[in-house]
Write a structure and sequence with these properties.
alpha/beta, Rossmann fold, 8 helices, 9 strands, about 30% helix, binds hypoxanthine
Length: about 280
């Protein structure tokens, strides 16, 4: 059995054989949001099954591949499909892609997800800039890891979502005349959706949206010193806020319906960030 470091070194070698792109930005595309990967130019795609140590995403709506190429002229690495804790993977697997991004030299992480809307002002299809998160997964991906030298033992999370990147995202939304909500993302393990009582609890705790991903990846990214920008697509009203039962089909179809706005926003953000660098 290889250690994670050995597997990641093997991944780097495989990637190096396929492309000479040196991405500075990494994207993680969430449920129903994988379409942005289709816009990558000069793309090479590597199935996760070809990457040593990578688990295979089991969730419909999540392709399982790493796409390297250019978006808006900028070299990027895109995870089209991610790993979730509820799939039964260890946190080290859930966050493996972020460690690979770091080893590839990526400095900025643009992370996306589909989330249930809790804030009364949100509607399905809204896009939300993540300002902060609540880690309600009952564990932390750095347990047993943070003693390694890659990052600090007790990493600071006081501005996990980079203030400057958030300002750029708001400016990009304004420029594109797109509404961009802002709010706190609560990360729970799933896979069951929340009960209405849990949603009331989350609202009291200050959550504006709820989902089953992102938080572990952001914690590891911050530990490794990456700057993070997070965008949620509000795919449904959270449990108890509408009279409809929740379903993954609704999550996927709302995310797909938002795809044009979502792509426009992300590309405009990338444009601005690139100009800034
Ligand atoms: N709850 C949890 N995760 C989700 C939801 C939700 O309502 N929608 C999309 N992912």
């Amino acid at each position: 059995m290889k250690t994670q470091d050995e597997s990641l070194a093997a991944c780097l070698q495989i990637i190096g054989q396929r492309t000479s792109h040196q991405p500075k930005m990494g994207l993680v595309l969430g449920s129903g949001l994988g379409f942005l990967a289709d816009q990558v130019e000069d793309a090479i795609a590597i199935e996760y099954s070809q990457l040593p140590g990578f688990p295979v995403s089991t969730v419909p709506g999540h392709a399982g591949r790493l796409v390297l190429g250019k978006l808006q002229g900028q070299p990027v690495a895109v995870m089209q499909g991610r790993f979730h804790y509820y799939e039964g993977y260890a946190m080290s697997d859930v966050t493996r892609g972020i460690r690979l991004f770091h080893l590839l030299g990526i400095e900025t992480l643009l992370i996306t997800n589909a989330a249930g809307g809790i804030s009364a002002s949100f509607s399905p299809g809204d896009l939300m800039l993540i300002t902060d998160h609540l880690n309600l997964m009952g564990t932390n991906p750095l347990i047993g890891l943070s003693a390694e030298s890659a990052g600090p033992l007790f990493p600071d999370m006081s501005t996990a979502y980079d203030l400057d990147l958030r300002a750029q995202a708001l400016a990009a939304a304004k420029q594109e005349k797109l509404q961009l909500r802002q709010g706190v993302y609560a990360g729970l393990t799933g896979p069951s959706y929340e009960t209405p009582a849990e949603i009331r609890m989350l609202a009291t705790m200050g959550a504006d949206a709820v989902g089953m991903s992102t938080v572990p990846e952001v914690i590891v990214a911050r530990w490794l010193g990456l700057r993070v920008l997070g965008i949620s697509c509000i795919s449904n009203l959270a449990a108890g806020l509408s009279d409809q039962p929740l379903s993954h089909d609704e999550v996927k179809s709302t995310a797909q319906a938002a795809q044009d706005r979502f792509c426009r926003l992300l590309l405009a953000i990338m444009d601005r960030i690139e100009r800034e660098v």
